[in-house]
Amino acid sequence: MAPVALTAANASPPPLPAKKAYAAAQLNAGLNLDADGASTPYSATSTAVSEYDGAKDKVSHPASPSAIAKALVESTIPSTLPSPTDDGYYANLIASSLPTVATKPGATVFASAVDALEALAVKHSESVWVYDDAALVEFGARVSKSGSKKVHELQTRQGAGLELAGYASKTQGKFTIFASIKTLQYLLPSIDKIEGDVLINLATTANHESLEFTDGLYASGTLKALASLPEDWEVVFSSGDKIIDTASKLYAGEPRKVIHVVESTYSGRETAAYTFPAPQPAAIEDLTIQNGSATQLYLAPAGYLASGIAAVLPASAGLVQLNTLSPSSDALFAALTTEGGRKTVQVLGATKADAEALKAVVLASLYAASGSSKSVLPLVKSLVAASVAAIPDLTTEQVAKPGKVVSFFTAPTSPLPQLLAHLFLSSPSLSTRLAQFGSASARGVRSVLSLAPASTPAAALSVEEPSDVTWLSDANVLKSADVLASAKQGSIVVVALPWSEEELPVKFTRSEIQTIQSKQLRVFLLDLAAAPTTPIQEQVAFLLLYTGTSKLSQGVWKVLDAFHNHQVAREDVEAAQAALFEVNAASWEIPELEEGKTEKVKSQWEWDALPGLAGVVASSDEQGSGMGPWDLAARHLFFREAFAVPSAKTTDNAQGLPGVSALRPSMSEETFLVTVSENRRLTPQTYDRNVFHLELDTAGTGLHYDVGEAIGIHGWNDAEEVREFCEMYGVDPDSLVTFPSPTRAGTLESRTVFQLLQQNVDLFGRPGKAFYAALAKVATNKSEAMRLKFISAPEGAELFKRMAEKETVTFADVLKGFKTARPTIEELVGLIPEIKPRHYSIASSQKAVGDKVELLIVTVDWVDVHGSPRFGQCTRYLSALAPGSKVTVSIKPSVMKLPPDDKQPIIMAGLGTGAAPFRAFMQHRAWQRTQGIEVGPLIYYFGSRYRSQEYLYGEDIEAYIASGVIAHAGLAFSRDGVDKSYIQHKMSADKALLSKLLKGKGSDAAYFYLCGPTWPVPDVYEALVGSLTSEGGMERKAAEDYIEELKEEERYVLEVY
């Protein structure tokens, strides 16, 4: 077996880390980075002992205080705890290299550029103000937690600009603010009233609608807003290491008013080695130019988009990055013009208005340049683009980064990625950077460590960075995320979990094993026992991989030992060497997929949380909740501008006014308050399934929907069950609770406990492991605390699964069962998620029915293992609604869209309530026929158990068949005959018809839709493939490829659940 070395072949080995604390170790030997086959290979039975002979008798013992002090980078940085076995040792070791107000200029710090900016701000400001929405994205958060008397917190709300102006007028000296793009809209109305030496550091980090983090500089309206600031305000942009350089200049010189737009999402958040600066009274460079001689130029403010363009810029094009919105006219003129020719400049903006606003800035500067009237000015165009992918002439292929990239998938509190980053950051021959992407959904952190030659240009590390090593040390992450998606061909996978070689294949899914084998990934198992020194053992294992040896060399041991204040024990090194071995993943058998079952597809990494030494912070976290007096409710009514959600719109169809009942949900999306006009059961009362038809009157609300779209129902919990819970929990249902809006930072809501539990909190939803873990911390009974902790731990997986799937316990059940685990109502708001809207396919066409929404719904109910009845929260709510009841709804787009050509045939396959969108299709085509519009044929396949009980909308269907709206129907009722008949059997009988329709061209090209449960999907797929092979003259491979083409063309559409 070839050795494993993580740097390119024939590369010169960089020297070992040269941190000041390591000097006494006399580390002059280089790490072996040459993958030339000379290193000792690993073997499955390797138990080799380290070559560091001087450590044979080494045992773990605390270092003396003088030795610890000597090991620190700077004498001003707090001491680490004396031993790796002590609580907080690793956190303090990492924190010892962070910048603080005591850090001296010229000192080397290992931190992000944002960390350094925060330290500079506190050190060189008279007062520092941090807005809550900035702190939520970890911008200014470390400042707000510093305990400094000069640091103050602010809420993002209406009137924020006036509030800031008042504070600024009372401050002498530098006045620093940490805000975010979200804050800007609240500052702008009064920004002209803010006076003094003011620096607003503006984070570009924002939340996408999916709650994942994104860069907000290119959000709609941002550039336009910045370009419209009063003339006495200066706007500067910075990203990456330029953030620190720009900040050092902003904290020097004459008083001024500046908005410093900081790329705080990607490169600004990466951990790297920086020299902590002193304020330097120098001018900020106006422009950063790349390929300036090119005749085709892109122009954008310095930030994430500009950095992305720079990474893929072809030689034929150039890039001009604006570091300020008021650049020197002559400098900009020189950059954008050329003698004897004319350049084309494309100015980028998220919208036409943004691009035009920036274009106006550029043109004004050009016309003000000396000699502009005698020269040929460039052709300046506005280009609407918010990402590199939106720019037509640029490639979106990921550019391979030099050096090696390691992706760690760890628990939120694992210190390993940062320990390794700090270890390698000391090497002057390496460019080391670490980016961390937390995920609340996966309950873990993905850390991307880049190790490259020192001269390598630094491009921002992405969430899905292609990786040479994938390191997995958290089983929960593996269960929910596709950790192998970014693994390079032939790369290394390290499973640092206590699993045996025999267990390992079972832990991966069928698809993951296929990925491992198709990518020829080398899989290593690192089976370490849990111990306080496990992070050190993991570092040893990584260094073994990095050097391509099976034993830790003397030089490598010395540097690691110095890093840990001479406390790396021999037993830890030997444990790592013995625990690391390669497994033969190529011999793993790929399990067969059971008939009728589909494999769960794991999602890609969702970056929706911020990592920290104490764990991840979800992007949706807000300020704490609290119970309070009734006068708070009055404040909310009288001072609505401070507490309302201004972008929300809810309309009551009775009065055409905002509906009081619709205060829940407080969402920024448009919601409508509609009225139930009919609730009619379709199945017999004696039948065991309640399928019902629900009509909602939308007159006067402005609600509009397209055929095939879905409606979101914002349901409530059962009132009687909520009252029973309040009595059991010992809370007054009429008490008032004030809590943050779940969708908008800085806004509050006040509700009674009863309203909160009925309308907000998903009290009868199913809890995840995190809920059990949180309860374990508040349980006062030791036995209950231990049981809760066990359920949340990997060891309790079977018990958790049984409780979730068989007993179907709810949050309320858990709180009732563990009587000493009693979080306050305010705390429950943070522990139990909001009731989410449930989406149902609309079973009507608005063209045909007018101001109505018609729904086809089946009540979800079951009996648990204890014989207790259980109910689906939303279907229970809907089934109980009487005519006249008010319901809050929203509209959601769907994949079930009609073909672009009305004459194209439609093949519909629906099971049970999966018939809903197809009823809308039928209504719409019937309406079109009444309007004289030529339409294509409808082919309808429908399946249920009994014709007499579940032929849903049977009379309508028969009428459509008789009138020719439905050209052909295949009705399958599985329990009516001796031989069970399903829709795939009806489809197989129509092979010739289906083959002809699927292979049609132009107006004859059919669209196929399937809606219903997932189980028939493979059989339906086989029926379609069979029609193409037996009647369409295709080989099976060609038929399968043809279906894939239909998917790409959106002519094969599935909506299954």
From TrEMBL:
<dbReference type="GO" id="GO:0005829">
    <property type="term" value="C:cytosol"/>
</dbReference>
<keyword id="KW-0274">FAD</keyword>
<dbReference type="Pfam" id="PF00667">
    <property type="entry name" value="FAD_binding_1"/>
</dbReference>
<dbReference type="InterPro" id="IPR023173">
    <property type="entry name" value="NADPH_Cyt_P450_Rdtase_alpha"/>
</dbReference>
<dbReference type="GO" id="GO:0004783">
    <property type="term" value="F:sulfite reductase (NADPH) activity"/>
</dbReference>
<keyword id="KW-0285">Flavoprotein</keyword>
<dbReference type="InterPro" id="IPR017938">
    <property type="entry name" value="Riboflavin_synthase-like_b-brl"/>
</dbReference>
<protein>
    <recommendedName>
        <fullName>assimilatory sulfite reductase (NADPH)</fullName>
        <ecNumber>1.8.1.2</ecNumber>
    </recommendedName>
</protein>
<keyword id="KW-0560">Oxidoreductase</keyword>
<comment type="pathway">
    <text>Sulfur metabolism; hydrogen sulfide biosynthesis; hydrogen sulfide from sulfite (NADPH route): step 1/1.</text>
</comment>
<feature type="domain" description="FAD-binding FR-type">
    <location>
        <begin position="669"/>
        <end position="900"/>
    </location>
</feature>
<dbReference type="GO" id="GO:0050660">
    <property type="term" value="F:flavin adenine dinucleotide binding"/>
</dbReference>
<comment type="function">
    <text>This enzyme catalyzes the 6-electron reduction of sulfite to sulfide. This is one of several activities required for the biosynthesis of L-cysteine from sulfate.</text>
</comment>
<keyword id="KW-0249">Electron transport</keyword>
<dbReference type="GO" id="GO:0010181">
    <property type="term" value="F:FMN binding"/>
</dbReference>
<dbReference type="InterPro" id="IPR017927">
    <property type="entry name" value="FAD-bd_FR_type"/>
</dbReference>
<keyword id="KW-0813">Transport</keyword>
<keyword id="KW-0288">FMN</keyword>
<dbReference type="InterPro" id="IPR002869">
    <property type="entry name" value="Pyrv_flavodox_OxRed_cen"/>
</dbReference>
<dbReference type="InterPro" id="IPR001709">
    <property type="entry name" value="Flavoprot_Pyr_Nucl_cyt_Rdtase"/>
</dbReference>
<dbReference type="InterPro" id="IPR003097">
    <property type="entry name" value="CysJ-like_FAD-binding"/>
</dbReference>
<dbReference type="InterPro" id="IPR039261">
    <property type="entry name" value="FNR_nucleotide-bd"/>
</dbReference>
<keyword id="KW-0521">NADP</keyword>
